[in-house]
Amino acid sequence: MKQAGENSNSLKMVFRNRPENEKIVRTTAAVFASVLDPTLEEISDFKTAVSEAVTNAIIHAYPKTGGDIEAYFKREDKKITVLITDYGIGIKDVGKSMQPLYSTLHTQERSGMGFTFMEAFADEVKVKSVPGKGTIVKLIKIIGKGEECGENL
């Protein structure tokens, strides 16, 4: 019999806005979710959503200086909440930035699809940003949503 709180846990990471750290956070996300025995599709979706949030922070938060980014993971039963927080330049127009193909960087390396991918691969995405103070991206992923359907067959 499971005890209260048995399926809850949290983890906080602080890292510099270096591209190599995206891989570390992505791997940590997969390991953190693995306790819930996700399907390969669920783990892939979750890693992709986290990767996009972290990549956005690494690329956009501190365009001229380095800075810290925080990744906070919280698991409650089958629900995983992730907060990716930076203290960089912030986003002037969150609504506009969440539109597909919108990017403040006009290079061929950026597609402007970061938030679109997050919305496609997470169950919920919320963004709070204050120009000059930073951005928080909240991702929620429910593991095992399809199990209820399979039980009725």
From TrEMBL:
It comes from Anaerobutyricum hallii. The keyword Signal does not apply. Its EC number is 2.7.11.1. GO terms for molecular function: ATP binding; protein serine/threonine kinase activity; sigma factor antagonist activity. Coiled coil: none annotated. It comes from the Bacteria. Keywords: ATP-binding, Kinase, Nucleotide-binding, Serine/threonine-protein kinase, Sporulation, Transferase. One of its GO terms (biological process) is sporulation resulting in formation of a cellular spore. This is Anti-sigma F factor. SUPFAM superfamilies: ATPase domain of HSP90 chaperone/DNA topoisomerase II/histidine kinase. Residues 16-141 form the Histidine kinase/HSP90-like ATPase domain. It is an enzyme of class 2 (transferase).
